[in-house]
Amino acid sequence: MPPRSVGPYQIFSVIGRGGIGTVYLGRKHDTGQAVAVKLLGPSPAVDALAARRLAREYEVLLTLDHPNVVHVLDAGVAEGYSFVAMELVEGLDLRSYLSTSIDEPAGEKAAAGATPGCAEEGFDVRSLLGEPDTESLEPPGGYERGPDAIRAFAAVIGEPETETVTRSGLPSFSTGDPPWPEAPRTEPRPLDARGAAALNRPTRVRRLREAMEQVCAALSYVHAHGLVHRDLKPGNIMVDDQRRARLMDFGLVALVDERGSAHLGGKVAGTYRYMSPEQARGGVVDARSDLYSLGVILYELICGRPPFSAQRPGELWHDILARRPTPVLAVNPGADPRLAAIAERLLEKDPALRFPSADALLAALREAWPDTHH
Question: Which residue spans traverse the membrane (predicted)?
Answer without folding.
Answer: none
